[in-house]
Automatic annotation (TrEMBL):
It comes from Arctia plantaginis (Wood tiger moth). This is Flavin-containing monooxygenase. The keyword Flavoprotein applies. Keywords: FAD, Flavoprotein, Monooxygenase, NADP, Oxidoreductase, Signal. Transmembrane segments: none annotated. It is an enzyme of class 1 (oxidoreductase). PANTHER family: DIMETHYLANILINE MONOOXYGENASE. Its EC number is 1.-.-.-. InterPro entries: FAD/NAD-bd_sf, Flavin_mOase, Flavin_mOase-like, FMO-like. Belongs to the FMO family. It holds the Pfam family FMO-like. One of its GO terms (molecular function) is flavin adenine dinucleotide binding.
Amino acid sequence: MARVCVIGAGAAGLCAARHLLVEPCVSSVNVLEQAGQLGGTWVYTEDVGYDDFGLPIHTSMYKSLRTNLPKEIMGFPDFPIPESDKSYLPAKDMLTFLQAYADKHGVTELIKFHHHVQLIIPKEAPSGTLWDVTFKNLKNGVIKTKEYEYVFVCNGHYNTPFIPSIPGLKEFHGEVMHCHDYRVPEIFTDKRVLVIGAGPSGMDIALEITSVTKKVILSHHLNPQPRTKFPDNLVQKPDVQKLDGERVYFQDGSEDEVDVVFLCTGYQYNFPFLHESCGIVVEDNCVEPLYKHLVNIRHPSMCFIGVPYYVCAFSMFDLQVRYYIRSMNGTFRLPAPADMTRDWEDEKRDRAARGYSKRQTHMMGPDQGNYYITLALESGAESLAPVFTKVHNDSSLKFKDNLTHYRSDRYRIIDDDIFTCN
């Protein structure tokens, strides 16, 4: 009977705990959550920087956020988001949904809130690797170390900003800000804002702040360019070449003056609690060595839920958890470490040959359908219906080409392969 530690009570951690609680091979489940409530990145707070305990505030939620994927593919396979007349929901509805999910499955009452994981160290035992997990109760300052057979790392990856290396950025005369600290548009009133990055947050926020700014310059390297018709005070530019004083120089030779450099440049995976003996290295946002983007190859009794991105997140978490628990209870055996390493290296070579950079190691997008299938085939777990990937691809395309109106679309899933949208 295994004792299991789950790090984090966001969607991934809640999903892991939900399945672990009904697994006969598991004797106990501890969910350790640094914040005072569940929900992870779906929790909104006006605060930025550091919390009352001096720890970085993890949520990157801004006040107006609505989902950029339809709710029809955002629930869990056994717990869909309730029917409503909208497909794209406000963030607070997603938090309510996660609370209902945790309550329904008896997860809420076992979460240890305000518990900060400080250190995880593996130690060898006759039965295999055991884990010493040291955590601090932030309320009373008590530090404890407990031993577990398995560790599920579910701390998310939208909490540690990625700051790109741009010549002149550190010396820029105006304000520099990352979207991790963005909450409301009024902070940019009457300013000229350079938005760097056109991912979901970059495009969303660039459009939102046009209502208060003098000018927005959206700098990116998307190819082809988004076909969205933006307001007149937003212009698109290629990548930034350098900054000098208040001037910004672009790769196409053009230049302009701005008051704010607003970085929508994504996040970096960060596991500060993992001792180096855990064997996990993060370099250029590649977390390795991970078998199937999931299993710690050097110590397979540790897994990472939710590392891949551009996916149907909650459903992927569910499949990853079901896959891994089936390896725990003996339904199937993970390959030998040497074979897992070979598979991991082969996948990295294949992705590189198809044009993915190292920083895009865990980006799925068009690859997500095959990823789900490989997890299901190896473990015998039920895969995700192909319609999930189809809806994801359809919505993602409309996001780029019709940003101002796509959230009024209403999706309906007809069966495992067919959906409608109107």
